[in-house]
Amino acid sequence: MPNESLPPSLSLFPLPTVLVPGAALGLRVFEPRYLDLVSECGRRGTGFGVCLLMNGDGDPDEGAETTAAAAFGTEAVIEDFGTGDDGLLTLRVRGRRRFHARQLRVRDNGLQVAEVEWCDDDPVEPLRPEHGLLATLLQGVLEQVGGEHADALDTRIDDAAWVGWRLVEMLPLDDLQRQQLLQLDDPHERLDRLLHLLPED
């Protein structure tokens, strides 16, 4: 019988990118350990953890050092899968809950599994007046590019957390900036940081 006092565990898929809550990500899967991960997620109906690769060139086969991953990441749930023109498994995943990886172990097949602490869900709080510029910016971006998030503008544009995550997802930030923003719990603090990251005219 499993020990209910143990923290939850999550298989990790380190990537040279940051997945944020609500964002979609396309993946091509070919390494045996990650094919095992996808199969396990399908059987159990669970997600896996996406963490930013903090060094190396993103090739996990070059050695353990290149797969050092950030301690904070986002749970990815599989929305769709298929086969690409090259015969490889393709996935469409969606970011769900943020987590903090507390302890890491490596399975015999090389798959990293972490004991995780789930971060609190985003509070639903209205946008503050000082962040109105960011809402206007997001509205302009989404009206230009369209897509699924554009359909939610009318109902979510005053949601501080949603506006912040969509900007983290869509603005031309570098991955370390995205990672720092992912690790913030307060949506208003995240918006403050985003304001400071905007280019000055």
UniProtKB/TrEMBL annotation:
PROSITE patterns: LON_N
Keyword Membrane annotated: no
MF-aspect GO terms: peptidase activity
SMART domains reported in the protein's UniProt record: LON (SM00464)
One record GO biological process: proteolysis
Domain Lon N-terminal: 7-201
Keywords, sorted A to Z: Hydrolase, Protease
Record keyword Protease present: yes
Classification via SUPFAM superfamilies: PUA domain-like
Highest taxon, organism lineage: Bacteria
Signal peptide span: none
Pfam family membership, one: LON_substr_bdg
Record's protein name: ATP-dependent protease
Gene source species: Lysobacter arseniciresistens ZS79
Source taxonomy: Bacteria, Pseudomonadati, Pseudomonadota, Gammaproteobacteria, Lysobacterales
